[in-house]
Amino acid sequence: MKHSVGVACIGCVYLSKAAGAFTFAVALLIAQALEPRFENLYDPVVGAFSWGGFIYTDECIADEVCAQDFLNKTRDAIAFAASYGVLFLLLTALVFLVYGCLALKAADGSVSAARRVYVFTTALAVLCVF
């Protein structure tokens, strides 16, 4: 009984990690979709960013060159995260989903599935050390 409960807990942890990675991937895609709207936030006349009626000013943001540099860095960061991060997060979510389902199958008494779950858990523990 203890073995089944432990493996089921491991399966639930893997499934929650898959859900977290998938949620973060969706958040990156949303940020990429909203990125063109960021350019409309900067008002060069006032020298500040405005969002939803609020105006954000800063010494750097008041400087038009600095604000443009800030927008360029933001655009590059979002593009990089959306291009590579989303693929990595979706792959991570898929791996955790497969092993989460495998762990739940192992909780029902499948010996080969239980061995794979323990091997994967050991591999994750070793990777976390490095």
Automatic annotation (TrEMBL):
Keyword terms, alphabetized: Membrane, Transmembrane, Transmembrane helix
Transmembrane parts of this sequence: 12-34, 77-102
Designated name of the protein: Uncharacterized protein
